[in-house]
From TrEMBL:
It comes from the Bacteria. One of its GO terms (cellular component) is cytoplasm. This is Ribulose-phosphate 3-epimerase. Binds 1 divalent metal cation per subunit. It comes from Janibacter melonis. Its EC number is 5.1.3.1. The active site is at 31 (proton acceptor), 171 (proton donor). Gene3D superfamilies: Aldolase class I. Substrate binds at residues 6, 62, 138-141, 171-173, 193-194. It is an enzyme of class 5 (isomerase). One of its GO terms (molecular function) is metal ion binding.
Length: 215
């Protein structure tokens, strides 16, 4: 069970300190948005490069961008330890996943709430993680979509059938109230933005989420 706090809910004026605050987590989740794939704009490669230089933990880059075939590999080349692209935006997901792995990153595919997983099951051998979105991508602080739990189960089942070590991540509205049902459905990597950075102590929130996920 791994916890990946999203720095989208952190103070962007003090990102190095905000990364230190989650040093007990497994990953730092960095949401890259381009104002085209999603109606919001966050940060890009230069900021990720700076974060990589100071982060005490590996970086889990979630790219909500158009044309990931072109724009995603540079994040892996920069040293991001995990790079997630949206399959809805990818032209050639097999080639993209191979490019990410060749650059040394874990290759991960994200699916939006309205996207079926079944057509992409064949991609599993190319992947190290599948991200099942539990909100519509674009903003932090939205309500958790419990109706995505059957999809988490479906992905976990497919991973079991295929074998190999492929993680199943959930992202959006994950909190102390919702994490147990995600774990129960088969998720093993949990992204949480507001639940971690909105708490009085980010470290305590990480510890609490980890404990609940392991129950
Ligand atoms: C939403 C982002 C999430 C977001 C999660 O598009 O992908 O990573 O930061 O924020 P919370 O945990 O507040 O829903
Ligand atoms: Zn995210």
């Amino acid at each position: 069970m791994q916890i990946s706090p999203s720095i989208l809910a952190a103070d962007f004026a003090h990102l190095a300190d905000e990364l230190d605050a989650i040093s007990t987590a497994d990953w730092a989740h960095v949401d890259v948005m381009d104002a085209h794939f999603v109606p919001n704009l966050t940060l890009g490669l230069p900021v990720v490069e700076s974060l990589l230089a100071v982060s005490p933990i590996p970086i889990d880059c979630h790219l909500m961008i158009e044309d990931p075939d072109h724009w995603a590999p540079p994040y892996a080349e920069a040293g991001a330890q995990s790079v997630t692209f949206h399959v809805e935006a990818a032209k050639d997901p097999v080639r993209l996943a191979r490019d990410l792995r060749a650059a040394g990153a874990r290759a991960s595919m994200a699916i939006k709430p309205g996207t079926d997983f079944a057509p992409y099951e064949d991609l599993l051998p190319e992947l190290d993680m599948v991200l099942v979105m539990t909100v519509e991508p674009g903003f932090g602080g939205q309500s958790f979509m419990a109706d995505q739990m059957p999809k988490v189960r479906q992905v976990r089942e497919a991973v079991r059938r295929h074998g190999g070590e492929i993680w199943v991540q959930v992202d959006g509205g994950v909190s102390a109230r919702t994490i147990e049902q995600c774990a129960e459905a088969g998720a093993d990597v949990f992204v949480a933005g507001s639940a971690v950075y909105g708490a009085e102590s980010a470290a305590d929130a990480v510890a609490e989420l980890r404990e609940l996920a392991q129950r």
